[in-house]
Amino acid sequence: MDSLNIERVESQNQIPQPQKGTTFLRTCFNGLNALSGIGILSIPYALSKGGWLSLIILLLVAILLYYTGLLLRRCMDVDPLIRTYPDIGELAFGKKGRFTISTFMYLELYLVAVEFLILEGDNLHKLFPNACLQLGGKRFGGERVFILLTALIILPTTWLRNLGLLAYVSVGGVLASFVLLGSVFWVGAFDNVGFHERGSLWRWGGLPTAISLYTFCYCGHAVFPTLCTSMKDRSQFSKVLLVCFVLSGITYGSMAVLGYLMFGQNLTSQITLNLPTGKISSKIAIYTTLINPITKYALIITPIATAIEDAFRFRNNKITSLIIRTSLVISTVVVALTIPFFGYVMAFIGAFLSITVSMLLPCICYLKIKKAYKSWGLEFISIVLILVLGTIVSVVGTYISVRDILRHVLPH
After folding, report:
1. Percent of the chain scored above 70 by pLDDT?
2. What's a GO biological-process term for it (predicted)?
């Protein structure tokens, strides 16, 4: 999901695209980049919440979201002018459809930016537990200091108007995932941690959280229409989706199993927080985790800032644009300081936003555009079942994640 904003940033800054389109291999890489995000850090935690049998649910989630990706592809076949996900919403339900999908997409981006700050704070505190900051005679320490310092570092990157070159930095997301996976395996195999935890077979209580986190890992649907449009041969996009979901599924599944075997029920919301800091492999994993958010934060925030600037016609006013972007950074800092709970926030994103964007809206738009509701066949029944199951999981998962957040923010 982290890279779903690349194509939007490039289009908003009017970066010219190759006339011939992207190849099958390049599109596969871009799709993997869209599915390779910070979700890999929490996938072992998700498995610990649901138990070993929840790996079956991880597989089912991947299959369902692969199918909804195909539904978006079929919606695009109706009109060759469709290029983005909001275009599909407008084709189905007019301007209200475009507004609804855009709202969910931007809110998802905003909360991912918040997650970046929380991630940086947690992992930097893991590396430097005794660091503190003196301001006005008061001593500040812990994760919150690092959240503030990270925000100060990334703030200038959000002032850039043209992020075309910076956008290509995030192509390292796929490589970073493999480096992280390799580092975690090295810790377990060669750094005296081992793979001895048995874990639980099934945990009903943690299942909604596990499903929410699993869904978050596969929420790349916002970029799928753009990737399809950019291809030389759009008929191959279904194969691209299959390759991306299979490879990302192997990566996520491997990380989940490794982490659960290593730490069992003691897993934290980020696998890097369980790693012993004294080992070189652990430091490689943590530093790899730290670099990506710093380079990608501006890419996440820019589409939101651009949408605000366009809505109020401030696009050509540099001072106002700077104020808007600075305000967005400040607001994400405030949210991150208020709810610095990586796992709970990710579960909320997965339950409320990812399920809606990646599961419910593709089905609803497909039914409306293709008028599939007029035929009570196997396809219609399958889509209705997905909508019912997705709605139930979304409601329950959102309730549980909000409840957990409020219990920590308002403990009394």
Report:
1. 89
2. amino acid transport
Residue 197 structure tokens: 């935890």
Q: Are 230 and 5 in contact (CB under 8 A)?
A: no
Which tops the pLDDT comparison, 133 or 125? 125
Tell me the C-alpha distance between 165 and 160, whole Å. 11
Taken in order 257, 261, 265, 268, the sign of the CA dihedral is negative
The burial class, CB within 10 Å (0-12 / 13-18 / 19+), for 392 is: exposed
* Overall average pLDDT of the 63-72 stretch: 96
pLDDT higher than threshold 90 for residue 292? no
pLDDT at 200 over 90: yes
